[in-house]
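Q: what sequence does this backbone want?
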């Protein structure tokens, strides 16, 4: 542990006074001499030096502690000391003596495979973490009879893409065994472990229409009581903030404790919906990045310029889509999205 306070040093004036008292009066020191003391008579040379004042001690950062369980059932574990999702998964794996590759994703405050409760870029300081681990692998043959398969894909931020939503009446809705929460492990034998959700979506989109392909998924392990539990609340309630402090996880840099802004929560939720409709992906961090860019400008023209100058240019957003994003941001700034969310929550 670094020393915050060292031994107190004498000032240069005190050193000079002490040495001069021992000097011969007939041999005063030269004012420009860097040494003090009678070197000619065997005295030691004392060099003047500037002494840095001791720095005040920094208050220790609070240690944030979270409770965790495996979603299919386990003792409660204590998790702390992480700054991003990968470190969180490793802490959970260490707690339960698992390989970190066994963890598919985490939900907050529910053991169910509830995609509205996915752990994303932030965790409330009072949230309970449930880790969903690998269960039964499944392999099915799918014929792509239409252009779209009807899947919405997301990922856990640590290398696993999984199914977030299946469109009713779509190709995948009629495929037995495939379900929400399944990790998409392979397509035609090609491993997708380590791929982001948009990479998996791109591979599925590039499969020619009329082709039959083999899809291998891994479902999360479930307990025998997975369908029993209290109602998760009214639809849309998760987009309204809790007003409590949250731990925001970042891909680079340390995690920070912030007070959530309901406007930000509603705006990023709307941006996420736009991303899903435009690209078929869901990315909390990408939505947060788009919001942060838009929150610093005052008009759609400046917003479009900032998007083109940022890393977002690789996504090839169309002008119309950028304008839609700005609409969500400006509505959130003016409070219109927040009011709409409150209305939906009441009715």
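A:
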């Amino acid at each position: 542990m670094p020393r915050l306070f060292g031994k107190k040093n004498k000032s240069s004036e005190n050193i000079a006074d002490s040495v001069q008292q021992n000097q011969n009066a007939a041999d005063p020191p030269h004012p420009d001499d860097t040494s003090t003391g009678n070197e000619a008579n065997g005295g030691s040379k004392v060099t003047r030096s500037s002494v840095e004042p001791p720095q005040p001690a920094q208050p220790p950062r609070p240690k944030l502690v979270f409770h965790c369980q495996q979603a299919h059932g386990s003792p409660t574990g204590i998790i702390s000391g992480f700054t991003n999702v990968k470190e969180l998964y490793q802490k959970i794996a260490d707690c339960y003596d698992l390989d970190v590759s066994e963890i598919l994703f985490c939900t907050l405050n529910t053991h169910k495979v509830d995609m509205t409760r996915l752990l994303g870029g932030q965790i409330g300081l009072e949230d309970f973490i449930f880790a969903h681990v690998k269960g039964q692998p499944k392999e099915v043959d799918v014929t792509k009879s239409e252009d779209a398969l009807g899947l919405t894909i997301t990922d856990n931020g640590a290398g696993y893409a999984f199914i977030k939503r299946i469109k009713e009446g779509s190709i995948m809705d009629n495929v037995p065994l495939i379900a929400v929460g399944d990790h998409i492990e392979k397509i035609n034998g090609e491993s997708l472990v380590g791929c982001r959700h948009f990479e998996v979506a791109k591979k599925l989109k590039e499969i020619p229409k009329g082709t039959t392909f083999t899809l291998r998924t891994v479902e999360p392990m479930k307990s025998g009581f997975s369908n029993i539990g209290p109602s998760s609340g009214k639809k849309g309630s998760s987009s309204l903030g809790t007003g409590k402090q949250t731990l925001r996880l970042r891909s680079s840099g340390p995690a920070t404790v912030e007070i959530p802004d309901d406007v930000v929560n509603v705006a990023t939720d709307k941006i996420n919906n736009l991303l899903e409709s435009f690209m078929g992906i869901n990315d909390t961090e990408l939505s947060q990045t788009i919001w942060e860019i838009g929150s610093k400008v005052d008009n759609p023209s400046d917003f479009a310029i900032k998007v083109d100058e940022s890393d977002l240019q690789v996504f090839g957003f169309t002008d119309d889509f950028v304008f839609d994003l700005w609409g969500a941001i400006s509505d959130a700034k003016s409070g219109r999205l927040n009011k709409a969310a409150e209305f939906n929550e009441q009715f």
